[in-house]
Amino acid sequence: MNSSPVVPFRILKVTADTSAPAEDLVAVEEPLGFRLGYGGVHGREQRELAITMRTPGNDLELALGFLFTEGIIRSRDEVQSVRHCFGEGLDGEAGNLVKIELADGVELPEHIFARHSFVSSSCGICGKTSIEAVRSRGCAQISDDGEVIRPEVLHALPDAVRSAQRVFGVTGGLHAAALFDFEGGLLALREDVGRHNAVDKLIGYAFASEWLPLGGRILFLSGRASFELIQKSAMAGLGVVCSVGAPSSLAVQCARDFGITLAGFLREGRFNLYSGSHRLEGGGPVHAL
Q: pLDDT by residue (tens digit) across 98-133?
């Protein structure tokens, strides 16, 4: 298995009237399995939890972020150990595996062992059902400490992320999730072929650093804002989410229900504000947003 985030390929570069051999760096996509150890003094069990396709790098953060945003763990002391096992896959196949040992006595939600798939909170039959599923994982309304953000801070985020995207700069093929303070200072950035993986890596880093909940922080997304990403933001206590692309209708509904400030189409000196106008300096009295 490849532990690098990029791999070279020989290609043919074609223009309108010429073609020539060249080398191109492509973002790596590989499977990663999660195995969970749990139980107590009277015995422990090992169970396969999930498999995701991801870009190698920050795998332990990815595992912690996934467990946190799925409501399986709530604090760092619930994790006994987390380690990366190369060459050992799920079902005896070769591959990459992260083993997470939970502390004795940690109680597990009944739903978590859906075989080899993510247990997604977005699988409810309607928007209301999906959002109630998020609440059932212990996610509460995002607290409001009265801090506001200047619009120019948000306008500067895309350029700050582009300049910090190391792998994207050579492949053009990765999503980024970045964490900023309210003054626009970059705190952390993670990349992956999957938007949800990039966010889980970032939240996993914050979890391991004991930063959660992430009040007074901005989450920047290099793509669109889906319900799943807003759900993960709500779990992490993020009050502000900005995306270069469009939000979905359920993402907007979830942001409004949990009190998250959501901006979309953040590029070229403009953005649309879909919720939480009270956190934007000069945002006006439209608190229904």
A: 999 999 988 887 667 654 444 333 333 345 566 676
Please tell me the total number of residues recorded for the chain in this structure. Answer: 289
Query: Which residues have CB under 8 Å from 224's CB, separation 6+?
Result: 195, 243, 244, 245, 246, 247, 248, 264
Containing structural domain, residue 235 = 151-279
Answer yes or no: is 74 within a domain.
Answer: no
Sheet containing strand 96-102, edge to edge, reads 43-54, 30-40, 96-102, 79-86
> Is 168 a domain residue?
yes
Number of domain units in the chain:
1
In degrees rounded to 5, what are phi and psi of residue 79?
-110, 115
Positive or negative: CA dihedral 212, 216, 222, 225: positive
Whether residue 92 is contained in a domain is answered as: no
| Residue 217: CB atoms within 10 Å | 20
Greatest C-alpha distance within the chain:
72
Q: CB of 57 within 8 A of CB of 39?
A: no
Catalytic residue annotation: 123
Q: Please list the ranges in the chain whose pLDDT falls under 70.
A: 1-3, 11-12, 86-95, 110-111, 113-131, 133-140, 167-173, 283-289
- Give the percent of the chain with pLDDT over 70: 79
